Amino acid sequence: MTVKLPIYMDNHATTRVDPRVLDKMLPYFSEIYGNAASKTHAFGRAAEEAVDKARVQLAKAIGASSDKEIVITSGATESDNLAIKGVAHMHREKGDHLITVCTEHKAVLDSHHALEREGFRVTFLPVQQDGLVDLAQLEAAMTDQTILVSIMAVNNEIGVVQPLAEIGKLCKKRGILFFCDAAQAVGKIPLNVEEMGIDLLAFTAHKMYGPKGIGALYVRRKNPRVRLEAMMHGGGHERGLRSGTLAVPLIVAFGEAAELITAKQAEETARLLALRERLWTGLQARLQHIYLNGHATQRAPGSLNVSFAYVEGESLLMGISDIAVSSGSACTSASLEPSYVLKALGVNDELAHTSIRFGIGRFNTEEEIDYTLERVVEVVTRLREMSPLWEMVQEGIDLRTVNWTGH
Amino acid sequence: MAYSEKVLDHYNNPRNVGALPKDDPTVGTGVVGAPECGDVMKLQIKVGANGVIEDARFKTFGCGSAIASSSLATEWVKGKTLAEASAIRNTDIVQELNLPPIKIHCSVLAEDAIRAALADYAAKQEKHG
Fold first, then answer.
1. Which of B:52-71 have CB within 8 Å of A?
2. pLDDT tens-digit profile of A82-125?
3. Three-class SS of residue A328?
């Protein structure tokens, strides 16, 4: 079987909308186009019914006990902002301290930075070398003033899965709310807000083969009832937590995408794990000096982040331009700084510059994995042959002893 | 990021990749940059008895623009006298390769590599009299 190029293997960034999801959403543009808040006529009621159904699908996907706990937003970034700022502003009287982790998504980190400017205190916990939070450190950081702990389920760069149930237990013990950014996790790992003690959870459609521009925030209504201050004011939609006319077609698609991905989670996990292992063992068999970033097994099934020592990441991307992946190299970002996530793992800058993130997803095939493997091996080999660092290492020079002229 | 055709050409068909014997007194070697900054260039020149650069080689760890800048630098120094080579400016490289502002440091590094190779050659000449 021949491979169709280019290959998309950047499923952490976003995913293709599943054709089944697209089919479900299209009639809501042209036929069932009412405003879900227009309860006085049939158009509005049909739209409302569709939204209600999607809300049940979304609640089920994360194990929520009621569809009333789902607040529709524009995506995970908005959900992150609403959860963190909403809790902080509502509970200001109770305490002024929040805890999060330095490898969180920028939407979480920057929401905390914004709160710091308002006078809140934030602890940014480090991670261990495998990317996981140290639970003892988390517990030690909790104080009587702590109102919220925000820790993601699956890291967007390295794919590691945090010990959510244990974190939930620690939070419950201290009466602290637990917010989880699960943008990369829903449908990809077993996830249940009741079993894991999660009080707020952000997720989004476009990471699960749904459309961009739609997400949700789970807000627990019982044990405890979580109260938030709204950011978006207006018509009082979503029980006052997020005003704005509901994007019915997108919500329908989101619900469908969530149902599809969770229904096949176990089966798809096995398939993705097999593809990932095929790629990783293939790379290891044919290339020396390559390193896996993040915990080896406690990671989302489609996620593989590898450093190819002595080959700069952007030049590697350029060589495999018919395969869409991404890099932790500074050259691919505007800041010229290598990935802060890899740095937090203790990966040195030199190796961070050489990292590639493979995001294997629903539409990737074994043939695509094999093609990717061949191309990566070919390009890494070629670039190493023209790498002065590789030459020095072959000559037995320890690169740490070289007096570099940094610029 | 969109690469210019010239950058792509140098990346795909780099000129003068390789190494010259670094202990040869007629060879000057310059190594600039640092691995933690994401780019290291090694540029070598071989100077003839008439003071003209008769050969050049490079190896680069860096992005496509860094590879292209050093590949172009080796092309340019060949056939030039030492004085002519030292007159090559990074802005010439920027112009030739259509480098965007974020990649200007690659051209600076290439200029530094030429200078370092020239300085190494000069130091060797002094030593060997």
1. 58-64, 66-67
2. 999 999 999 999 999 999 999 999 999 999 999 999 999 999 99
3. coil
